[in-house]
Amino acid sequence: MTKRRICVVTGSRADYGLLVPLLRQLEAEPSAEVFLAVTGAHLAPEFGLSYQAIEEDGFEIQAKVEMLLSSDTPTGIARSMGLAVMGFADVFSASRPDLLVVLGDRYEILSAAQAAMLARLPIAHIHGGETTEGAIDEAIRHSLTKMSHLHFTATEPYRRRVIQLGEEPDRVFNVGALGIDNIASISLLSRDELGETLGIRLQDPLFAITYHPATLGHSGAGAATAALLGALDRFPSATCVFSAVNADPDSRVIGRMIEQYVARSPVSRLVVKSLGQQRYLSLMRHADCVVGNSSSGILEAPALGVPTVDIGDRQRGRLRPASVIDCPEEEGAIAEAIQRALDPDFRRLAAVADTPYGDGKAAAKIARILLDHPLANLLQKRFNDLVGVGHD
Questions:
Q1: Within a domain: 170
Q2: Residue 293 has pLDDT above 80, yes or no
Q3: What region, left, alpha or beta, does residue 73 occupy, with left being phi > 0 and alpha being psi -120 to 50 degrees?
Q4: Same domain flag for 249 and 171
C-alpha cells in the first residue's frame, strides 16, 4: 500500500497544542506517513525550547527549521520570515511530501506556505475564514486561504467566508475546532496536582492569563500591558498564572513587564514559558476566569464552562459564546470586566453557555479528508465567483 506523505508544520506551542489530536490520528492511520517539521519559538531558548515537549509527547521530529533572530522588531521579524522561507524550501526539496498541513495565522506558517507554493506542494489549511481585526494575523490568515487547496474551518459561518474569498465549496469543510478535541481527549489535572506541578498554591480567585501583542492595536504594548497589570492589582488576594507571550513584534516589552510583575509577589504570581496542553487546559478548567487576548479564551475556555475577559481588539471578529466579556485596554474597564466574570450569576451562565466550535471530533474528520481526497489537479484552483459577481 502506498502511503500518503503528509508534512505537518508547527511554529509555536499554541498551534502545536491544537495539532496534537490530528497528529495522533494520522499516526494511527496505516495509509499515512507523517513528516513533522518544527520552527519558530519551538527552537528558541527564550521561549522554552518547546520542541523538547513535542519529543516527550512521543512524536518524531523530521525537520527543524531555524528562523528566529534575536529581535522582536518589525525588521527582525521580516528577516526571520526570509530565513524560514529558505529553510522550508530546502526541507520540501529534500523530503518531497504529498501534502502540507498548516494551522492558523502566524508569520512562521506563512513562510512555510510560501515555500510550499513555489514548490508546487498542495496545502491544507486549518482555521481559515476567521477574523481578528486587531492583529496582522488577519491578513496572514486570509493570505493562507488563497495559497491553500483544502480548507478546514471551525464553524459554518467561517466556511462561508472562505467560499466568499473565492474558494471552491467542495474543497471547504466545516469540521469544528481541534481545541475541543483536546478537551475531550486529555485527562486534566486536579487543582492540587496542578498546583504541585506549577510549584505554587492556587488560592481563590485564580486567574489564567495569556496576553500577546495586539499588532494592530491602538495602545502601545507597554501601555496596554500596564493597564492589565494595574487591573490585576485590584484583586490582591488573587493567584495570577501567566502563560508566556508569543514571539511577535513587541513581545519582549510585554514579557519583561510580566516577569517584573511576577517577581514582586512570587508567592501568588507565576509566569510559565511553556505549560503544555494538559497543564494549560487544567489551568483554564480550575480558573475563576481566563484573562487576556488569546484565541483560547474564545474557543477552549467556553467549552470548559469558564468565563473569559477578552481585552482589546486582538480577537475582534471571532464568534463569541455568551461566556466571553469584551473590554478595552483600560485598567478600570479590565477590572470591571473581571469583577463581572467573578459574579456567581455570570459564572452559572458561563457553565452552560453553548459553543459554536463543534463536537470534539475534528481530528478524525480532517484526517479522513487528508487521506481520501484526490490529489490530482488539486494545485489548479478555479476562483469561485459568488452569484452575480465577476460576470458580464
A1: yes
A2: yes
A3: beta
A4: no
